[in-house]
């Protein structure tokens, strides 16, 4: 019976690593500039989901490599640019944003990801809204 429990535990740990729920997810970004007349609502995809991590309570007993704290992050990205309507001539009316093509569980790369979760962040328009569906 103990062999069955050990094999089940081993299978669960192996399957848990491969079955992480990290995938591209639909997301709406609201973009506005003070000088422009409209707010732009952009439909895009971001990486979101669950990645397996290991409890660091036993860090004295484990190797550093066993203490991974992975996040759901971009594997492949495509940048697109949208035009914000209602901007005066002296204002740059373009906004570039990432589109997640594929995602992975891994270390957070600050070159292209915001690795800090802010407590309160608003994502809404204060001006009349235009929809940009890419």
Automatic annotation (TrEMBL):
<protein>
    <recommendedName>
        <fullName>Thyrotropin subunit beta</fullName>
    </recommendedName>
</protein>
<keyword id="KW-0732">Signal</keyword>
<dbReference type="GO" id="GO:0005615">
    <property type="term" value="C:extracellular space"/>
</dbReference>
<keyword id="KW-0325">Glycoprotein</keyword>
<dbReference type="InterPro" id="IPR018245">
    <property type="entry name" value="Gonadotropin_bsu_CS"/>
</dbReference>
<dbReference type="GO" id="GO:0005737">
    <property type="term" value="C:cytoplasm"/>
</dbReference>
<keyword id="KW-0372">Hormone</keyword>
<comment type="similarity">
    <text>Belongs to the glycoprotein hormones subunit beta family.</text>
</comment>
<dbReference type="GO" id="GO:0005179">
    <property type="term" value="F:hormone activity"/>
</dbReference>
<dbReference type="InterPro" id="IPR001545">
    <property type="entry name" value="Gonadotropin_bsu"/>
</dbReference>
<dbReference type="InterPro" id="IPR029034">
    <property type="entry name" value="Cystine-knot_cytokine"/>
</dbReference>
<keyword id="KW-0964">Secreted</keyword>
<dbReference type="InterPro" id="IPR006208">
    <property type="entry name" value="Glyco_hormone_CN"/>
</dbReference>
<keyword id="KW-1015">Disulfide bond</keyword>
<feature type="signal peptide">
    <location>
        <begin position="1"/>
        <end position="16"/>
    </location>
</feature>
<dbReference type="Pfam" id="PF00007">
    <property type="entry name" value="Cys_knot"/>
</dbReference>
<comment type="subunit">
    <text>Heterodimer of a common alpha chain and a unique beta chain which confers biological specificity to thyrotropin, lutropin, follitropin and gonadotropin.</text>
</comment>
<feature type="domain" description="Glycoprotein hormone subunit beta">
    <location>
        <begin position="21"/>
        <end position="125"/>
    </location>
</feature>
<dbReference type="GO" id="GO:0007186">
    <property type="term" value="P:G protein-coupled receptor signaling pathway"/>
</dbReference>
């Amino acid at each position: 019976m103990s062999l069955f429990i050990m094999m089940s535990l081993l299978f669960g740990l192996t399957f848990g690593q491969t079955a992480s729920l990290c995938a591209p997810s639909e997301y709406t970004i609201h973009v506005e500039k003070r000088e422009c007349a409209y707010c732009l609502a952009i439909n895009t995809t971001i990486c979101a989901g669950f990645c397996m991590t290991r409890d660091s309570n036993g860090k004295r007993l484990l190797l550093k490599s066993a203490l991974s704290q992975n996040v759901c992050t971009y594997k492949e990205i495509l940048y697109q640019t949208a035009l914000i309507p209602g901007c005066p001539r002296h204002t740059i009316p373009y906004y570039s944003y990432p589109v997640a093509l594929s995602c992975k569980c891994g270390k957070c790369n600050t070159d292209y990801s915001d690795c800090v979760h802010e407590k309160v962040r608003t994502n809404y328009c204060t001006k009349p809204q235009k929809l940009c569906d890419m």
